[in-house]
Amino acid sequence: MQSISEAVKKNDNKVQRILEIIPGALTWAVLTSPIWFGKLLPVWMNFFLTWLAVFWVYRAFLHTVGLFIGYGRYKKEIAIDWLEKCRQLKLNELPNADQLPASFDQLYHLILIPAVNEPKDVLEGTFMSIYQNNYPKEKIFVALTVEQKGEKNVGNTFAEFKEKYGHNFGGFFMFIHPADIPNEAKGAGAANRTWGGRHVVEELRKRNIPLERVIFTTFDADSQIHREFIPRLTYAYLTDKERQDRFYQPAAYLFHNNIWEVPTLMRIQASSLSLAILSSWVFDPFSKDTFSAYSVLLTTVIDTGYWDVKLGVDDTPFFWRTLIKRDGKFSGKEFYVPLYSDAVQGETTIKSYISQYKQLLRWGWGIIVFPIAIKGFLTNSKIKPLDKLVRVFRMLEQYTIWYTIAFLITFGFSLFHLINPSVEQTALGASLPKITGYVLTGAFILLLPIGIFREKLTPPKPKTWSVWKRIWTTLEGPLVILNMLTFNLIPYVDAATRLMLNKRLELWFTPKIRAECKKS
């Protein structure tokens, strides 16, 4: 009898297509449920909408508690000299000490930065943040991998910085990723990262650097790291008994480089994402995957085969490919020393909104990991069944519930009653919307502590601002509801729909425009 694994492999194209349809189909089924489900089973539709409201309040409460804990860890960690703590460690007494070098000085860092055509002020901020880190520069290798169209502009910036500071590092490299390589997704960061990754590994081999002693980090060209970032990462790696099957990520991922220069909804989106990442690491580290900035052993990158150059998304597929290859033994571990990145900003307000939509559409295209994950689970029997179930549930929860929940809570009862007016005449149909309204009204109280943490984590407002502008930006927090109904919904449904209809996404690079902004 043919096994499930054999059947999946034999019918790979058909299975792939079915799995591409599922997320979009489920998303639309849930999104339109007040219409069809409300007609078929009105009582259950009432309970479903009420459950969504209670679930949203529960998650909002959990989010608030997560912020309280996460912010405390953030403040504690940025006050510590992590290099000194690393030097105080006795490596031979640490968990699985046989995996570690004999001396702290035999550990290296490689930072790979993909670039397209970023301006000088963006790249200089990134380079300087690495240079100013509290870590021996000679143990750090930096590699910039640049798309061919940006060779001249980015190359000039790279050359200037290398001339001034490059001699301090163990190595300072730039590689040009050629355009139009066959079988590569155009504009995909995966192809650029893979090109740079393979070439810098060859450079390290020429220098006889033991690759198993190299901690690899990649982040975007607009990112700036806190001066304790590298030593804190090092400490996390050294003290972790599961270090060879881990990725490390900053829980304090703050989109604050230009936070006070962007339009209101861009600021709401950026700060909401920063807060969501911080709180989610506190309560749900199991469900985290590689996103934007992450660190692993360099040998992990090599064993996984770098990034899949045929895919339009690079970060999340790397996690799933590694997880499946390692039979489910690959997970994340956070630290709270921050990384700073840019909020989306265009040359005009309209261009900012367009850029934000396109960026979120690209992020939404990360839904392509669903077929990767499911096929991997079906063909790999060594992964624990419970782990498979939890991860599949988390993915489906995100696609079908979390992206649609604001729309359903806001408009669900109205659509339901419009389609099925008789429901309002029942005691249940009349009372549940009122109860839900009371629950949601009470939940708005949580916007106060969330707003306080937002203020604490963002840089000080510009001194040139008027009093009224300062007040407005302080009170704009409730607009997160508008953001959830637009930018947190439409691009993600768009991406799932495109995948469902077998329409491929044309990748698009988010332009970087930097405004100087003092960080917290």
What features would you describe in this structure?
With 520 residues, this protein is an alpha/beta fold. It has a domain at 80-385: Spore Coat Polysaccharide Biosynthesis Protein SpsA, Chain A (Alpha-Beta Complex). The chain is built from 21 helices and ten strands. α3 (33-40) crosses α4 (42-78), α5 (82-88) packs parallel to α9 and α12 packs parallel to α14. It is globular, with a radius of gyration of 24 Å. Keywords: Membrane, Transmembrane, Transmembrane helix. This is Glycosyltransferase 2-like domain-containing protein. It comes from candidate division WWE3 bacterium CG08_land_8_20_14_0_20_43_13. The chain crosses the membrane at residues 18-37, 43-69, 360-378, 399-419, 435-453.
